[in-house]
């Protein structure tokens, strides 16, 4: 028999993160659904919105049962104009793939740490649903010939000249498939980041927030260029240019508070991919370059956190009632 004990800090923290992030993403999804033109895209947007709404409501209910009650941090009035089409349908698809992948990664990592049966079962259902969504998005991108997946040649280990220790000591070797995959994920993350920052910087009203978003655009450009250089040095082509799918609009579709928090929410995704690339690489110059990119994102996140706190836009998570001073 399973024991139905009170939730521990893992369940409380992960459910709060799920509830608060869903609350924010749901508004973005609702806006994207109302501005998308392609029927297939609108259908899958509605599916994602339905699942995201369910996870917000269920997480809120589970937290409420534990005595933790909270009001939504973002509301309908954070959508200023639901008819202003800031992003093309192609860019919406890329944003959805990015958000779905981030959600799937977060759910999987959190799932293994859960010990409450009811919460774990809830996460199991979400994982199954989001995996299916990810597959549907992949199929849609492929069907519309929008999948950014460049092929590359490779050699098996037993076909290479020399031994690993010799290659590692001289550093004269190409990318391996594991670091290539992780860096590609980071590259795609930054490509989406460039497009989001481009769009948000055009419509944001608060000057401090505009400065922060423009700095994010510059950082994403630098990260994308640095990763592309590593690829090109190893004979692998890359594609960029999603910012070209941002429309010129006169009216802001979102509140400054929502845009700043969306940037901060997506910011850690690239760090995770870069960290995985670091531990999978045997080449010191790659490792040093990737660590420097990670440090830049960390510094940018710190600036973003200070901005949110200063503007009173920071949704503070639950804290313990005791701390070591």
> Which of globular, elongated, flat, extended, rod-shaped describes the shape?
globular
Number of strands: 0
Low-confidence stretches: 164-170
Computed structural class: mainly alpha
The biggest beta sheet reads: none
- How helix-rich are the residues, as a percent range? 55-70%
Provide a descriptive summary of the structure in words.
The chain is mainly α and 325 residues long. Helices cover 67% and strands 0% of the residues. It has helices at 9-35, 39-65, 89-111, 117-143, 164-170, 177-203, 207-233, 256-280, 284-310. Helix 6 packs antiparallel against helix 7 (207-233) and helix 6 runs antiparallel to helix 8. The chain is globular, with a radius of gyration of 21 Å. It starts with 8 loop residues before the first helix and ends in a 15-residue tail after the last helix. Mean pLDDT is 88; it is low at 164-170.
How is the topology of this model organized?
Layout: H1 9-35, H2 39-65, H3 89-111, H4 117-143, H5 164-170, H6 177-203, H7 207-233, H8 256-280, H9 284-310
Which characteristics define this entry?
67% helix; mainly alpha; globular; 9 helices
Brief rundown of the structure:
With 325 residues, this protein is an all-alpha fold. Helix content is 67%, strand content 0%. The protein has helices spanning 9-35, 39-65, 89-111, 117-143, 164-170, 177-203, 207-233, 256-280, 284-310.
């Amino acid at each position: 028999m399973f024991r139905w004990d009170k939730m521990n800090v893992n369940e409380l923290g992960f459910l709060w993160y799920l509830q608060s992030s869903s609350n924010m993403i749901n508004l973005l999804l609702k806006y994207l659904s109302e501005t998308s033109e392609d029927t297939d895209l609108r259908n899958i947007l509605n599916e994602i919105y339905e699942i995201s709404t369910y996870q917000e409501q269920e997480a809120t209910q589970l937290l409420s049962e534990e005595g933790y009650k909270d009001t939504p941090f973002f509301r309908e009035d954070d959508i200023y104009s639901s008819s202003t089409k800031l992003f093309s349908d192609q860019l919406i698809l890329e944003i959805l793939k990015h958000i779905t992948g981030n959600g799937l990664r977060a759910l999987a990592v959190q799932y293994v740490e859960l010990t409450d049966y009811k919460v774990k079962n809830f996460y199991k259902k979400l994982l199954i649903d989001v995996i299916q969504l990810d597959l549907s998005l992949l199929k849609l991108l492929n069907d519309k010939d929008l999948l950014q997946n460049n092929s590359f040649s490779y050699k098996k280990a037993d076909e290479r000249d020399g031994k690993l220790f010799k290659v590692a000591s001289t550093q004269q070797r190409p990318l391996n498939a594991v670091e290539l995959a992780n860096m590609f994920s980071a590259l795609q993350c930054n490509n989406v980041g460039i497009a989001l920052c481009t769009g948000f910087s055009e419509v944001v009203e608060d000057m401090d927030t505009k400065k922060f978003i423009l700095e994010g655009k510059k950082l994403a450009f630098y990260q994308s260029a640095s990763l592309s250089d590593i690829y090109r040095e190893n004979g692998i082509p890359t594609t960029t240019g999603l910012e070209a799918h941002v429309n010129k609009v006169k009216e802001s579709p979102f509140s400054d508070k929502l845009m700043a928090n969306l940037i901060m929410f997506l910011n850690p995704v690239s760090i995770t991919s870069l960290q995985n690339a670091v531990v999978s690489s045997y080449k010191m110059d790659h490792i040093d370059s990737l660590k420097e990119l990670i440090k830049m994102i960390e510094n940018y996140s710190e600036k973003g956190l200070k901005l949110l706190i200063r503007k009173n836009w920071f949704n503070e998570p639950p804290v313990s009632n005791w701390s070591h001073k």
